Amino acid sequence: MRLGIVLACLSWAAIAGAGAAYLPEGGAGRRYSPEEPLGRLSFGSCNDQRKGDRQSIWQGVLGSRPDVWLWLGDNIYADKKMKFYPKEFAKSTIEQMRGMYETQRSVPAYRELRDTVGKIVGTWDDHDYGLDDAGKEFPYKKESQQLFLDFLDVPQDSHLRRQEGVYNAHVFGPPGRRVKLVILDTRYHRDPLFSNGDVLGEEQWKWLEAELAASDAQVNIIASSIQFIPNHHETLCPLCYPKQSPFRVESWSHFQREKKRLGEIVARNGVEGVILLSGDVHFGEILMSPPGCTLPYNLFELTSSGMTHAASGSFPKIPLEIMKRFSPNPFGLGMYLERNFGTVDFDWEGATPVVTLSVRDHDGNPVLQKNVSVEDLRLPSDGNSMQEGKRPGACTHEGELLWPNRCRFCIILFSGFAVAIFLALRAVLSILAFLKYCFHLAVHREETKRKDH
């Protein structure tokens, strides 16, 4: 508890040094209007409606007093795990899914958020889409889309009801203090994993480029249900080598061509102020890709995942700490393995706007934080952009690392297991040897007594 208080104080002191972060005025009962400058966007993912005792994180969300709430996927869990390995899930019926959404809507603190927040928007990921790791092949995606839009209270005459996919965009704030939120759908049109195929589908790609090219916002937030910058899948070798491994980690890195395409769209259209938000992985993380790696300027990604359940509750503590400390994460600025949600704060008062990216714990205290000046999200003044084959050395991705470096988490983990097994065997053998000695000693004493008699 004391550590949490110290972290909170240090984090807020850091914000103050860059200009105080905007905190919405008025608290409960205040409803943000999209015409006002956006102060705080809060978001989260991986929220299991079946874990009623874990829905208490909504009190922390309410305490953060967001202007806008963003659902970033796995907003309910509509499938059920049948096997750990090979990984197998069973899907629910549409009627069952409807009941699951109603269960989530009936959570008292979430009802209070719906009554007080200015706007609720979002996208889905696999478990609320309908099935673990599912893509365009999912047979009930049209029906699932209507349920998802019902959950977000999208009007029946909205174009989103007729569109194939739940991608959408929103603009907040007046000119000069404007934020554009572009929310992607990484499920409806996605090709199978390991195919290096498509993620968004051609229509969504055209829409995305048009939205970014037409943007006059100072900050352009792109929200993706899965991570974009990192490739944690590559660093969990050999745990993730089998295609049905329960440890495999979905990300844009499974689709390198698509990942490159997003960077090209931003560069080609001269889009500035891009920041990424993501979920899915059951931990919080802040990442930065340096200029020339993905975009012509610094690309920051804020991941928040695990509202009702996180990595710390699913895996033993020691392997998680080994992963956190030793697994290569070339673009990582920090990782948090407990339940969390995320906030994005906008300070418009200084000469240059400042965006504060935060991962917050169950109670709403900041545990990871990064201040980003909008000035650092501008295109280079010399017009120098990314050039194929000329990435700086700092852009080495996980898959490009040599095997001993890339797989050092598993090397340390399995070596530790081997040492533990060796020591355990030595201990057992030592005990057996001692017992054998005691047995022979007892026999010897009995023989000596008989001879004496």
Automatic annotation (TrEMBL):
Signal peptide start and end residues: 1-20
Record's keyword terms, sorted: Membrane, Signal, Transmembrane, Transmembrane helix
Database matches in InterPro entries: Metallo-depent_PP-like, PhoD-like_MPP, PhoD-like_sf
Residue ranges occupied by any PhoD-like phosphatase metallophosphatase domain in the UniProt entry: 45-283
Transmembrane segments: 411-435
Keyword presence, Iron-sulfur: no
Domain of life of the source: Eukaryota
Protein name, per record: PhoD-like phosphatase metallophosphatase domain-containing protein
Origin species: Chloropicon primus
